[in-house]
Fold this protein.
Amino acid sequence: MANIDSANQQAVERMMDARPILKGVAPARDVIPGMKPNLLLHAGPPIEWERMSGPLRGAVIGALIFEGLAKNEKDATSLVEKGEVDFAPCHHHSTVGPMAGVTSASMMVYILENETHGNKAFSNLNEGYGKVLRYGAFSDEVIAKLKWMNEKMGPILAKAIEASGGIDIRALLSESLHMGDEGHNRNKAGSIIYTAKLAPWIAKVTDDSALESEILKALGENALSVLNPVMACCKAMADSAHGVEGSTMVTTMARNGTDFGMRVSGLGYEWFTAPAEIPDGLFFPSFTSADANPDIGDSTITETAGIGAFAMAAAPAIVTFISGTPQDAINASLEMYEITVAEHKHFTIPQLDFRGTPTGIDIRKVVELGIPPRVNTGIAHKEAGVGQVGAGLVRPPMKIFEDAVRAYAKKYKL
Amino acid sequence: MSITKSQIRSGSYYDSVVLMQLQRNLLTLPGVEDAGVVMATPANLELLADSELLSDESKTAKPEDLLIVVKAGSADDAEAAIGKVDELLKARRSATGSAYRPKSLAAAAKNLPAAEWALISVPGRYAAQVAQEALDLGKHVFLYSDNVAIEDEIELKQRAGEKGLLVMGPDCGTAIINGIGLGFANRVNRGSIGVVAASGTGLQAVTTAIHNLGGGVSQAIGTGGRDLKAAVGARSMLQALHYLAKDDDTKVIVLISKPPDEEVIAELLTVASQCGKPVVVDFIGFAAPASEIGNIYFAAGLDQTAQLAVGLSKSNMRTPEVVENSHGFVRGLFSGGTLAYEVLAGLQNFLYPIYSNVAIRDSQELENPLNSKAHTILDLGEDDFTVGRLHPMMDNDLRLRRMKQEAEDKEVGLILLDVVLGEGSHPNPASELGPAIVSNRKTRKDLEFVALVIGTDADPQKIDEQIKQLEDAGATVLRNVADTVAYVAARLATQSKAIGVLLRKFSEPLAAINVGVESFFDSLKSQGAQAIQVDWRPPALGNEELASILEKMKA
């Protein structure tokens, strides 16, 4: 058996050395490996329709309507129940999606290319706030917005990104972490940088100034516009660290609204799952934790890659999510150093004297110290289509780490 | 009937998280049923509309406006709640939050890189593992925990020795390092007395007495009660002794323990005799061979220990000379039985193993007095030897033959003789012993002879002439037992085998990681030391199955 520490070091070096560049935008079916018309990708570990939570079901229905495979909810449901729709985790197709993460064949997706290791990762376009598919909404206005994004904004973004020669998302994150973002729940600065970087190219490739204005407004007003490229960037990083023999480092954490799933670099493609928990946080007007769906979304890829809640110290403006003071934000990051393999070479935290972010979760340390990773997250309403009801903190169930440690002992005959 | 009131504040920006917190606080106010505090962006207005919180007036708010909406049981309650908004926005937690408490030693070491020490007081079954981790991180260990297996203690101390680190304990309750008390310790003046103790209360009694007598302590190092057992071999005490010997701030060294195992005494006192500083020894209940041997002072009890140490620290005595080291075994060929016995009583504290036909301890019994082994002290006046011949005080024949026999043993480095003058003794012993010494030294140039001459200048043998003859033959002449013991012990001192890499100077100011009993952390802080507390929990939160897998994963 390989030395665990050196295997983890190798894995984390790969994760940190990965340099994912946003290279373009294209329909999923053209770029995502294995994508096909009746396949819907979703967030989290594998799940069948019967066990899907409200927001994920809503997003599935919306995607089938968007694809023209169903006319309405009833139609979509019966299509699924007849077994005519295939489901697979985004993660099985080098893809990640926030919240429900539902990605269908025609949807425009960002293409990230890891220049260091050559692998690619994909993520859909961010819809902004309010009634959105990722929270399970599928009303006409939701579908209309998706169509506008796909038909109007997507092609322009594709041209603009191509014209720009690519955008280095790792570098963008390094910068936004110094501007109060942690890269998961707070992407305000990053989204502004992203918009600023794209704006000249959007202007250059768009003839229609009204459309140009609409696109810039959509990007600039959406404090999450960069979240999806960021997630795909983290996915490309994590994938490049996967498959290191003997490594106990986590390369996937993802939730489908029912289960929390995890995969480990040295344990192949086995998912370790347990029921997802209800996040603890702050709620929008008139909502309480009774309205909340269990944890959902692939956005935990940010924590997997060493940002998000792990970089909480960099984002004091959102400390209220974790009930407190700027000191609590610093403590949150300090806690994550205890369960990680390295301090990031490229992502640093000014508030910690530019210490690298805690990077590469080691399942051994999680179990030994009893500290599950922290995850910053949006909170979805448990019913399809209501949308986001709050934001806060959640931790993966301890069981998945314990199971992974046992599986490791079995695989490596300890 | 609920009443909804709203307020628009133009151009006031707040982060949404601050507003969500504010909204949560509004909900706790009397009569408030629902509340919304948002920047009035279209998405947020929609959200309020969905919750039936959006009035016509509110609809006029612009995205850069702060919109506050409260739904309450009465208009008064709603107004009152809105009136509280400023107060709530200004409200700050009184505390700015407390510093992070790491859960692992590794994190603590990162967060306080200056920490050179780890104080460990976790339950005994986990203590060795935590101590091992501290050593791996390059920290000296103060191990308060008890119920640690002696095998673990040996392994820890061996490991520490290899890395130039010190393990105090297990079951070490007290120490004073660079003026900072660790565990249970008194606040005492700093000074020039270095204390090493295998007994916690012994250390406290002596350090306080030193303070009360006007002296001061440079370092007080605990070792744990088992350190002086043969199996452990006084590894910690030896390390500490070496440290204090080199330490410029230490003038006098004090060793405190219950009586150690015999081979341990020999090694400790040998090292002490070589350290170049006065050493006050209190092996509680130990039968000291003399009150002083060379630079070693044997104290009777803790109080006398402190008195002797303070006296020595204030005196301007010269640093004792370190006798140049020789090697090999001593063979003592005595004509006087009591002299042999007393020399044995002294040397047994320095040389191990040592044998005799007048053994003090059972382990010293020589099976065959005709054949010496290792260090041997022989009383040639014993019946075994005197049957049919004159006593060796009158007749040197036996001693001359035995000298030759010993000289032929290449492992012998020093032959010790007594020369007892006076009425009835041989009229000129040196005239026979001198030439024999010369002749033996012809074949064994490295062999040293030491003669303990007992007599006065009024004795018929003319003591000065006796001494001159012996010295001319190449012997070292000494005049009393204590000096003889000190000299021989120093000449044959062997290098300690167990101490490993010498300890680096302890850094000031002291910085430490505390794992376990929190009052030790508080005490460090109140003494002005830098400290960090580890929120320690058993590995895998006490799940033995997982903990054992994790242990295997470390291997």
Observations:
- The longest strand of chain B covers residues 412-420.
